[in-house]
Known about the structure:
Layout: H1 7-16, H2 20-55, H3 62-67, E1 71-72, E2 77-78, H4 81-112, H5 115-130, H6 133-152, H7 162-186, H8 190-198, H9 203-214, H10 216-231, H11 235-240, H12 255-259, H13 269-277, H14 286-316
Antiparallel strand pairs: 1-2
Amino acid sequence: MTPRVDDTDMATQLRTTKRPLERAVVVSLFLAGAISIAVTLGILWELGKEALLFFQDEVVSIGDFFTTTVWQPQAGSFGIWPLILGTLYITVIALVVAVPVGLSAAIYLSEYASPRVRGILKPALEVLVGIPTVVFGFFALTFITPLLRGVFGVNTVGFFNVLSAGLVVGLLIVPLISSLAEDAMAAVPDSLRQAAYGLGASRLEVALRVVVPAALSGIAAGVVIAMSRAVGETMVVTLAAGASPRNFDLGTDSLFGTILNPFEGAQTITGYIVITASGDISYDTIDYNSIFALGLTLFIMTLTLNSLSRRIVKRFRQEYD
């Protein structure tokens, strides 16, 4: 009689005897992942090395860099908070625009649109991702800003202002939020929808009370990724928000009158980097090294947001059989 082969032994044997093509695929995937990690570490090394030169300069104080609210390199003042304020302010305005619009578009595509309509609208929405950001920047400068000045008054809204930049950055990240949210909603089992319909729920109630909570992890992760995209945006904020850091004094300046006035210009971290790097600066000067210090700060901010998105997915992920 032929001896019976145990299923466990057979599975073990199949795992240990990989085909040459499969081995090549595994090695290629490993190399791709290793290269990505190596590139990230290389970027972090270069940023850290040049940033260290910046902090070693006698003009720069690490304490003042992270605590003071005046950024004037010409006067030897290197307080990063005006640049962080401009970056976060524009990001918040962008999210206020993008989250409702992107989530509404995702709900429509997932729950209301027919397969034919979805096949047309979703690629059309994602086309916005392929438009160069400099185009969005000129759109903010030549359309949104004049529109705001016509509504609120020329004397109220500056030619460079935070609101215009935030609105256009919001439009820029709408496809990212809508696409990721729609993918998360599409992964929700249809049995949950049918059960809710069986209990008498309307289509809107199913979408808002069943599908959205079930896809919350994917939606939240998409919002955080879009936030990272907004934080790192360069051309829109450079063209629309201006090139003057919004220096402030917490003791004398009013919160909404000066510090958080959306109708005045501000400079972001990326805006300062691109303007300074495109100018005539010499290697190993304090201006040159300050670019890397700001780049390292921006790297840490985006890394923190990406880590937060992974935690959100892990915390709220639901698995369905």
